[in-house]
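Section handout 9: paired folding examples.
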Amino acid sequence: MKDFIFRMPAKIRFGVGISSNIADICSEFGARKAFIVTDSMIIKTNILDPIKESFEKAGMPYEIYSDIVPDPAIETVDAIAEVLRNSGADIVVAVGGGSPIDAAKSICMLQTNEGSIREYLFGGSRTVTNPSMTLLCVPTTAGSGSEMTAAAVITDNQNRIKLSVTHDYLVPKIALIDPLLHVGMPAFITATTGIDALTHAVEAYVSLNASPVSDAMALQAMRIIGKNLRTAVANGSDLEARSNMAIASSMAATAFFNGGLGVVHGIAQSMGGVAHVAHGVANSLILPYAMERNVVGNLEKFKEIAVALGENVDGLSLREAADKAPSAVFKLARDSRIPLKLKEVGVTRDHFPDILKGTMAYRLLAVNPCKLQEKDVMEILEKAFE
């Protein structure tokens, strides 16, 4: 067995209705005023009601910033960081999916580290040196896993690319998992974020940086998603399915926080900057095609993925069993009614050169189970397009 390090990310506090105790949890950190970061869709629902009521009951002042847009840009993050700086708040609560959480992680870091977020993105001129302001995350989707990780993905509109700032100081203090807040999630968002979580688990499991501990997290996350995603999509009020998907998402994120990711995320991150495809949609669409290419990189693990997703591999050769893994993902994607082709989400072949360029520059491509060349990435894109 090779040497490895396994890092435990954010502390998880799980419970149905636990968000109504958020003021008490903030008080444990000595907080006097909270700065809530969310988006315009959340603000139109009743998701924030128990959180606001908790602060009001405790007599703790709070301020809400709700103008987060999908895939927040550098300029947006810098502007919100200044709003937070002038707010008098001493704790941040992120409520929403990956975009509000990534924005919150970034602005918390900028409270204690000088400069623009641009300077801290991959390839930038600065390194995070000081611990971030305290951050609590309340995910309302079961997919991004950002509540568990040390990275925040930010859009550089100037260069038409998504990049990340990564440092252990960005890891939130607590991930508050309340499946009640997931009940109203639309079926399409449930589906794409759910397969986004599956992508995290699959890529972490077959990564060259995988360890026995990250494997255990990834494999169990796959089992849970395989058993619960269809139900969560078909019946969003099923609290047990919602609970299982919520915790599976956090487990998958813990796996990739340690094991790393691969070509799916390289393509998805590049595609988001070039063609403005939502990250969860891009991951869920690319995953099965990338698996078809990667399967030869670790036949045994792909066989285990197939089994985890409910495929019967009895009597099959190792290669035949491994090929069942992408097949299982295709079935799950079809049953979940997600797009299966790039042209369905506005990607054209004219986008391919820029997507290819961004993918080949993706830093985690090195831990993909197969060493991929440009022609391999182009083959994945072509299969996903037609």
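Moving on to protein 2 of 2.
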Amino acid sequence: MTFEPTDDNNSIQLRENDSPMHIRTFRAANLQEALEQIRNQMGAEAAVLHTRQVRDGWMGWLGRTYVEVTAGLRDDEGCINTNLDEPIIDSRAVPEMKSRLLVKDVSSLADLPLPLQAYEMELLSAGVDMDTVDRWLNTTVSFAASMGEAANGPMAARTPWLEHLQRTVLRELRMGSQILTHPGERRVVALVGPTGVGKTTTVAKLAAGFRIEARRRVGLLTIDTFRIAAVQQLKAYAEIMDLPMQVVEKPEDMQQALDRLGDVDLVLIDTAGRSPKSDARIDQLVELLRSAQPDETHLVLNATSSAAATRLAIQGFAPVRPTAAILTKLDEAPSTVGALSTLASSEQYSGIPLSYITNGQQVPDDIAPAEAEMLMSRLLTTKVSVTSLNAA
């Protein structure tokens, strides 16, 4: 496979097995407008190859944000359509397109319905890995076919592609795993995660919910001695809710601290934010948690983080062996697909069950058990109503 720049400025030509493909990049204010340009100027057979967001202005500052979409059109006769308007050709996109085309047959892209091509672009832009994107889209097409719905032709517009995609993603997510407590039986639950994901506030929300609504006796314990402000913040919550609290700095002090909490039904452990790349700090956390022997360990993840950052957090905190995940700051996240793609199950990965979501700073209001409808309605930036997800 080789790239051959043409002499004119109308296209870049890609040759694959001696079959030329004309590559063009379109710039528009939004994704839908870019797709309309592609459809009008290149026709329905054009395949979407790449998308990215760009900003004009000085070094990207103080400028407007655009969407650039790169599309390809196979021409078996080797002819260039000179009637096309002059496109924006961005040479920096060529290596990215080459990398993508080496692992994915371009003709398969053109076979996708236009809405699924748009969703594919958004999934890739959100950092979802290509294997997951392919798996999701193939399953979505198969599901639509099993329902007798058209993938192409005039009836394809009636196919609810996004709802089918939502069902596909939902089937790979594990819901549930909320904290269960029983009077007279102590349960120890630890929250871990990167810096800035909202662990301390989430601990306070959980504590308030179990203390006020479930009428449980709750104790707080923190091993976040790296940030004095975090200890003071949790201590303030403990005083407001009249909860016992202990601070632990070393593993050998853990058991005594747990005993000093008294006869409580639930112990919530707040931990220091750690970089997933810091093996030494993760090892230290493992030692502290081993001394606490938690019944559950919830990995707290920020819904606004990229798929790559979320994936790094999951890999970095794997030695802690999280039993569930909490997704925070949904109110700040334009979509949930980046985080959810890293939690989804696959043939090689069983996924982490989602326990709770948070969508604001209010204690204890802005926390709830993870629910499929909330997560799926925010899967992509495209807004649709979500109906009967669990019935599928």
